[in-house]
Amino acid sequence: MANTFGHLFRITTWGESHGGGVGVVVDGCPPRLALSEADIQPDLDRRRPGQSKIVTPRKETDTVQILSGTFEGLTLGTPIAMWVKNEDARSEAYSEMATKFRPSHADYTYQAKYGIRAWPGGGRSSARETIGRVAAGAVAKKLLRERFGVEILACVSQVQNLQAAVNPETLQLSAVESNIVRCPDAAVAAQMIQLIEQRRAEGDSVGGIVLGVARGVPPGWGEPVFDRLEADLGKAMLSLPASKGFDIGSGFNAIRLTGREHNDAFRNVGGRVRTLTNRSGGVQGGISNGETIYFRVAFKPVATIMHEQETVDAQFQNTTLKGRGRHDPCVLPRAVPMVEAMTALVLADHALRHRAQCG
Amino acid sequence: MANTFGHLFRITTWGESHGGGVGVVVDGCPPRLALSEADIQPDLDRRRPGQSKIVTPRKETDTVQILSGTFEGLTLGTPIAMWVKNEDARSEAYSEMATKFRPSHADYTYQAKYGIRAWPGGGRSSARETIGRVAAGAVAKKLLRERFGVEILACVSQVQNLQAAVNPETLQLSAVESNIVRCPDAAVAAQMIQLIEQRRAEGDSVGGIVLGVARGVPPGWGEPVFDRLEADLGKAMLSLPASKGFDIGSGFNAIRLTGREHNDAFRNVGGRVRTLTNRSGGVQGGISNGETIYFRVAFKPVATIMHEQETVDAQFQNTTLKGRGRHDPCVLPRAVPMVEAMTALVLADHALRHRAQCG
Amino acid sequence: MANTFGHLFRITTWGESHGGGVGVVVDGCPPRLALSEADIQPDLDRRRPGQSKIVTPRKETDTVQILSGTFEGLTLGTPIAMWVKNEDARSEAYSEMATKFRPSHADYTYQAKYGIRAWPGGGRSSARETIGRVAAGAVAKKLLRERFGVEILACVSQVQNLQAAVNPETLQLSAVESNIVRCPDAAVAAQMIQLIEQRRAEGDSVGGIVLGVARGVPPGWGEPVFDRLEADLGKAMLSLPASKGFDIGSGFNAIRLTGREHNDAFRNVGGRVRTLTNRSGGVQGGISNGETIYFRVAFKPVATIMHEQETVDAQFQNTTLKGRGRHDPCVLPRAVPMVEAMTALVLADHALRHRAQCG
Amino acid sequence: MANTFGHLFRITTWGESHGGGVGVVVDGCPPRLALSEADIQPDLDRRRPGQSKIVTPRKETDTVQILSGTFEGLTLGTPIAMWVKNEDARSEAYSEMATKFRPSHADYTYQAKYGIRAWPGGGRSSARETIGRVAAGAVAKKLLRERFGVEILACVSQVQNLQAAVNPETLQLSAVESNIVRCPDAAVAAQMIQLIEQRRAEGDSVGGIVLGVARGVPPGWGEPVFDRLEADLGKAMLSLPASKGFDIGSGFNAIRLTGREHNDAFRNVGGRVRTLTNRSGGVQGGISNGETIYFRVAFKPVATIMHEQETVDAQFQNTTLKGRGRHDPCVLPRAVPMVEAMTALVLADHALRHRAQCG
Q1: ipTM for the complex?
Q2: What does the alpha-carbon distance between residue A151 and residue B52 come to, in Å, rounded to a whole number?
Q3: Taking the model in full, what pTM does it have?
Q4: Which chains touch D (3 or more CB pairs under 8 A)?
Q5: D116 vs A22: CB contact, 8 Å cut-off?
Q6: Spelled out in words, what is the top-level CATH class assigned to the domain C4-358?
């Protein structure tokens, strides 16, 4: 529970923003998968702060080290421990964060729950925790690709009111990585970047949508009734910092259609059962139907802004707090590898679960 | 996994649409809670088909029986087994459902996964499975109300394009139950009912939104990092049949605001830490902050319609299928007790989890 | 937890001695296994009270009913719910058990834990709870036999000081079932029966040892480091009522040997890796090595005796209590199917777990 | 599963004998417990090889580092990651272990299961894995002592045929630590040491018994029906390397007594319910009864001996193998802190579980 995700392909993350480091233990990975740090580091680099002008400038190299679970370049079937040392432990001996709760952050709720919190950098609630997820997700992506032929992708599809048209069937990683906002629609991407820079100049921030895609999932993954694919994907995405919503396939837009307009007709296409449309988003009754899985994740605007805001202090007295220092106007480009990672973790788990019961 | 939900307040449901019955085992309920069938039956009656003209006419009394876990009217701390016998096992000796996959149902995916399926009534994928959830949810609601002072509510807030204005702070059960569509806004409810009747007449169906509300949750429930309240609520809701989306607080609407517009300022109100707005939906960093929790669940239009549709048969040959018999144009009124139940199950679990670690 | 056992082949039992019934939900069973009540009932009959003169005369037919999870005689992959109705709910309106704690029973500890207990028949702590285990174990045994070629057996090998010589390699069910004490050594069995009858005549009771055996387990089942086969088998056996000890292979006798005397040498026998001796009991490093798995379970003498004993009442006042009514001098013959069931549950779970990670 | 133990106080260990290191993540520890490396290191020193002349001379300082989960000397309620770097990675470029399976070790079964193994030092099956357990156990012991008044102890009570008389009620840590074999009976301890030295001189090894004790556990911990205290303790102990058996209270000796001889009479002693004898070992019906919990763990003789033994190589060809280098004639003194750690982990978990459901 709590800091563990998955049942058969299962990860446990640990670490605070300013402690010794952050890391993850991956348990249940099948043996004999070729794996080294070179398979992990690229996704950590995509997640890293400071990679472009539109994300937080926090400077960390975030170099991953595999501590266990591999031998001569292959996984052993034993726990894969990976970690990244914390480097940017800036002296914050005096910080308003120690005594005031940042609005729409987790400072107050951690204090209310535990009676203590690691205030520097947000402690456990820092997005730095997602390093462990992204590292583990890189393993899951490799497993899915090499053993099951499944491809995982994600991209930014909306920033505030700027919407890109993205086709889950044809989305390519190269298009995602072709610009710093990770939106495959070049024209809209340019507008998004401009908008984010404007918000940064205003000391403000934006939210938006990340689209997640899984292609090549065979029919039959996902377990009724509680561990439906969409339920596990939803939980995975809603466990990401700043996420506020999730929908799959037609999602919230489904409600404007009638059943007649919405249903996906089945057809035999080349000997395989296909649906003519894919409003189901690749999942029916909680189980994959062989079509492309796609879903949206809504991220709220970043809570840290460079404006004075009303809040209370540790003694619950009214006060104000103004963000200072590093300002991250938009988490979306960095959320893309997080969404990929969580998608891969859900699917790797269900791949093994399906094999266990029906293999 | 799979058919079990929750960690400390934990349920396992079982049963197919046309087998011996459907039921649930509730494990982990605290002892000495007054409990009898009279606490369970009302919610089952609200979930039951045939309760009004706008839902499916399937005739079942759905009378619950408690088989274990209580003694002299009090819970024992041991598993509470409850079940409802299947009564409506109509002879369907000849049925197209045995040989054809209903579009946008789970027939094909169950067959693909298991190589077998209980086709009568949809088997395990039937909404009848939710009887166990609703029964267990009634126990959880009682526990939350009597031991923790928490109130759970839900209502229909949208049918296709008809949107009601509902205030989570003031929503009352009596208003929800004042009409058959379970929308507290009487004027919009009347329109909704009219729309649903029209769709039924057309042999078609509608979807919409159920709003879920939890009031009185103290600060501190929910566990970072994976078992955030919103993640567990999201999973719970997305495990309901026909659900396609979930968002909490400002949700998908958050993305149109800037951080400055979106943040919830803290204020000391009468000695308690409160937020002036509640775009967070009562949860920050995955942990309750003492404000009202509210969220939306999107349900697609019912897949069974009275029109001929393209599909394939068990041999993957193209064919058509026309719905016949019972027609449920709108699942939303019956989804209201389901959403309440799943909300209660998540919160009862987290109430116990919080007490375990921080109590 | 608590009332659930197993991870992938997973059971949840419910029921008190005198409530509506006792039952089990089996989740995770692979689909398309032929299954009907006829596969379950024989083991329940072997577990049933009143089957011979040396066990408790409680009269119950214990007729099992499968409520879900099968269709046309095959498992569906969905939860298999099974139950046995309680019939022997004798009026015990006045019973000393309601107000006094039976020595070496669970009356006091249940009361201390929960502040309430179902005193008739011992409630949840009654051996009647094992009906669910035995029913589920029958499914697991069938799965292991038909899909994995694994055979599960158990027998009584010791009653008080009477020890039988049993060879795990050659033990046969027919020999076990050839006498009412379920000891394959006919000569010792006769002495055991005589001893048990003598103890019954004295109003006293006996304990002993049940030997468990699994043959045909391939190399590779079991998971380091916590879910070693012997750890999971040990937990399974120690969760049975009245069990006090468990050892595997050489077990407690291993400590008298030196390493040189104890080690099992490896040899290539017909192309397979075998051990010349089997002091390891078929498990090395927590993982099966292909040899026969065998272990011992120690059961204490039955706590209910027909003598006056010192105890306290519900107000913690000193008093005495004398057993009356049904007297079960020896639980061992009925424990044999329980040990088989728990063995099968552990191995079925690990069979699926192995397939998931390494399949 | 597998590398995770516990439900609410939950640990995940990782690491191979010769990889980057070994470690543990402790999840679920309550917040605001004073904790630093100084609380952990002493138990690691007791577990460490090379601490005396009768255990393995492998030279490792095993210095623990806490990487997360504490802030200013207090636990945060977040995961506590701890690790020990591997230092003794001696070049074993040429080793027979790479190509031959050591008898009664886990080399063959790991290879059979995973198709790969980290042969240096035994990889994951090395006793080095228990570093994580002992570190986590030190946290659990502190929690139990400071928050629940529970004391955990263990000692060596038998080496081969040399049996010490140990009273669980009066056992003291100082007596355990007064000699290198960790047996509180000084006279027998001297004999044990002499025997172990003799076996070492012979290139052979011994096994024996470790007694585990928990004092001060209140009535009510432990959960029927599967997670009985003795079941969870049994699993914990049987998950330790080289353990072959477990019994609690009267254990295997119970079987020689009749029920009349064996039952523990209840008496009111100073207002508390006590038992006059404690053959139950502090647990009845799976739940603690307030008496001292005590149990025995049987360890087989160490498998590595300095004699040539028959075995097979990686190609399953018959060959021989002779142990060389470091020789550990007796694991028992080092097993004492392991037994303490596992006992503490089980009880900390059940302390929280009891509080969750009945608190």
Answers
A1: 0.97
A2: 46
A3: 0.97
A4: A, B, C
A5: no
A6: alpha beta
